[in-house]
């Protein structure tokens, strides 16, 4: 099955992600960019990290979702340009500092780390 998972929707972390990790089962995440009503791509923290990595805020948000290697993200791609932008996420290595900034901007169910 698919579950919603993004920086601004991290509710699956305490139960679903943990269980899947313990059972070596991948998670398929939809709406990894926050969905229609959540404009993650306009977030200042994502934009700043994107500038550092030479990519878009959307690519950073997508890189965050797939960072563990155990989450498969299925972002919407309305055009070939979106597909290319999404593919950039595969080459982004978020640093511990990046992850800390994202956790502070988007605290998960455990709070900012």
Q: How does this model look, in words?
A:
The protein has 113 residues and is mainly α. It has one domain: NADP-dependent oxidoreductase domain (TIM Barrel), CATH 3.20.20.100. The protein has helices at 13-22, 44-53, 57-65, 80-88, 96-105; strands at residues 2-4, 27-30, 71-74. Strands 1-2-3 form a 3-stranded parallel β-sheet. Helix 1 (13-22) links the parallel strand 1 (2-4) and strand 2 (27-30). Helix 2 (44-53) crosses helix 3 (57-65) and helix 3 (57-65) packs across helix 4. The N and C termini lie far apart (29 Å).
Assign the CATH superfamily: NADP-dependent oxidoreductase domain
Name given to the CATH architecture: Alpha-Beta Barrel
Count of runs of 4 or more consecutive helical residues? 5
Number of domains: 1
- Identify low-pLDDT runs: none
3D shape: globular
> How would you state the average pLDDT, rounded?
90
CATH domain topology: TIM Barrel
Radius of gyration: 13 Å
Structural class: mainly alpha
End-to-end separation? 29 Å
- Reading the helices and strands in chain order gives EHEHHEHH
Main sheet record: 3 strands, parallel
Spatially, the strands of the biggest sheet line up as 1-2-3
């Amino acid at each position: 099955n698919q579950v919603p998972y993004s920086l601004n929707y991290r509710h699956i972390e305490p139960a679903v992600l943990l269980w899947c990790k313990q059972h070596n089962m991948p998670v398929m995440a939809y709406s990894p960019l926050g969905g229609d009503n959540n404009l993650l791509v306009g977030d200042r923290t994502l934009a700043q990290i994107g500038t550092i990595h030479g990519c878009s805020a959307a690519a950073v948000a997508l890189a965050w979702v797939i960072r563990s290697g155990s989450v498969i993200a299925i972002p919407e791609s309305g055009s070939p340009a979106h597909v290319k932008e999404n593919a950039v996420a595969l080459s982004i290595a978020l640093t511990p500092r990046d992850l800390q900034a994202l956790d502070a901007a988007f605290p998960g169910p455990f709070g900012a780390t």
